Amino acid sequence: MKIPEKILFFIIDGISDRPVYGKTPLQDAKTPNLDELASRGILGIMDTIAPGIRPGSDTAHLALLGYNPYDIYTGRGPFEAAGVGIDVKAGDVAFRCNFATLDDGKVMDRRAGRIRETKELARSIMEDVKLNCEFIFKESTGHRAALVLRGRGLSADVSSNDPKKENEPIKEINPVKSEAKKTAKILNDFVKQANDILNKHPTNVERIELKKPPANTILLRGAGMVPDIETFEKKYGLKAAVIAAAGLVIGIGKMCGITHIGVDGVTGGVDSNVGIKINKAIEALNDYDFVLVNIKGGDEAGHDGDFEKKRDFVSKIDESFSDILDLKDTMIVVTADHSTPVSVKDHSADPVPIMIIGDGIRRDDIRAYDEISAAKGGLNRLMGKDLMPILMDLINRTKKFGA
Ligand code: ZN
Ligand code: ZN
Question: Are residues 256 and 292 in the same domain?
């Protein structure tokens, strides 16, 4: 028997759940391929952050990659900014942003009518806003964007200008700690200048003519300082790649020095083409030691509270898993970053099912991949931070502790 040298790691985002009428979506779905993998592997359940903690996708992904989110996570902004392709540096202060509609000082639409084309708006802001520090502003998909401030004496301890509700006045950005005074001033200045530029912008003049809400202000949220992260390759000696549609996951990968491999036809929704992702991942194993695949649609169905949509998504992705049944010399991991129960419509702290398949594994007698079956498996109950050390041992990359 040859010990596998590579790891193919599936995170099926938010797929685990609680029973509705006696069954979870994973239990109710048709999953011959996932069940075949389960019968070859070892299973367990996992608290991705810790028991009782409701994980965000970002903090959970960091934990699963072996990073301590409590050390490095200060907000979502840095990961979003990295995900839209901004080259963030340790010490930068970053925000996720919305283009929004402002009228008479009130936020009338937090997504500016779900505007699609914001490239020109972002370009004008980059060209014409002048701040007391360096900055990068870049559009993302839809109404989203990211802002990065760079310079000395910046702080992420500032409030948001987002009233969170429509028809409410836009808020002033305030320092939460006294050392953030300068940053708050810069940010208020940014919003003021951006408003002036956006109000006059041809894109918005045209939108008003077409009776569409103009994208004439920027809401700033998720303030965070970019952490100094040891790259994944340095940490584990593994050359790593990520395949994902969600900017947040791509951004996390990017910050950990993990190469993003783009795939056509992936959307991050239940209509995403999972088969293409899996084939791309198998191909990537030729060049990389560790390939992370994030499959996103199930989380969306959980947030929608739609049991059938979630169950049918599981059945759909199961078909694509037939392609990895014959994969050789690779440890395959299938798990989730958190549960998104349809009854909760948000993330919960319920542990997620995990299975590891590969030569040499201590196979248990579990024959199905679901929350209830996995709880009886040979891995028992793990913490997310323990997963990478376990995988490193299974691929023979761990040094002995002691003599
Ligand atoms: Zn997630
Ligand atoms: Zn979610």
Answer: yes
- Residue whose entry in the numeric block shows the structure tokens 């991705």: 48
Determine, yes or no, domain membership for 400.
no
| 160 and 185 share one domain | yes
The beta strand positions in 13-143, using DSSP E, are 42-47, 93-103, 106-109, 134-139
**Cα 300 to ligand 2 centroid, rounded to whole Å:** 6
Residue 188 Cα distances to 77, 160, 214, 243, 298, angstroms: 17, 10, 20, 37, 38
Residues 106 and 193 in one domain: yes
pLDDT digit string, tens, across residues 61-84: 999 999 999 999 989 999 999 999
Q: Tell me, in angstroms, the distance from the centre of ligand 2 to residue 224's CA.
A: 20
Residues in the chain: 403
Whether residue 329 lies inside any domain: the answer is yes
* DSSP 3-state of 49: coil
Ligand nearest to the CA of 302: 2
Write down the residue that tokens 């100094």 correspond to.
228
Question: Three-state SS for 148?
Answer: strand
Answer yes or no: do 111 and 248 share one domain: no
Residue 158 CA to residue 180 CA, distance in Å, equals: 6
- Model confidence pTM above 0.85: yes
Ligand number with the minimum distance to the CA of 300: 2
Domain of 26?
6-73+228-394
Report the number of distinct structural domains present in the chain. 2
Average the pLDDT over 143-171 and give the result: 96
Contact between 337 and 296 (Cβ < 8 Å): no
Q: Beta-strand (E) ranges in 261-386?
A: 290-295, 330-335, 352-357, 380-383
Q: What is the pLDDT of residue 141?
A: 87
**Smallest-distance ligand from the CA of 246:** 1
